[in-house]
Amino acid sequence: MTATEIELRTGRSLVDPELFSSIVDFTVLHFGHDKAKAERATDQALAFTATVATATVKMVPSDDVDDAFHAFILHTAAYREFCDTYAGRFLEHNPRPGTGGRTLGEVQGTAHAMKAAGFLVLDDLWTVNGENAAQCDADDGRDY
Fold first, then answer.
1. Residue 125: inside a domain, yes or no?
2. Residue range 92-123, pLDDT digits in tens
3. Residue pLDDT, tens place only, 23-82
4. Rounded distance between C-alpha atoms, residue 12 and residue 47, angstroms
5. Most buried residue among 12, 47, 75, 95 by CB atoms closer than 10 A?
6. How many domains in the chain?
7. Nearest to 27 by CA among 53, 2, 5, 45
């Protein structure tokens, strides 16, 4: 039996390089990320947004990804076009003030939904209070 390598999509591949760079620059300027982290977070924010339309779980970004997601939303015309292309509709941003913030379970569900949608998930950006939310259990939850 041979293993088959599956090529995962990146969020970066969904937009033109000029828009990607603009979102990265905004994330650096307004959220204080260094350029390398902003590039990685922007990739994940784009993959997150593309997955929202088809996910069957509540989609909640990690803190790192949320910064780039907000930077993307503020590119309103490009964000609207992206939503039309990947979701067929405008994806509203619905913050939840006063609800206690992100939970590990919600962020885990989000990272796993992105993986299931075929996106490369950069695990180190998907944390809640320092706890990794992207790693799958080694046994995939099966009871042996």
1. yes
2. 887 766 666 788 899 999 999 999 999 999 99
3. 999 999 999 999 999 999 999 999 999 999 889 998 999 989 999 999 999 999 999 999
4. 8
5. 47
6. 1
7. 45
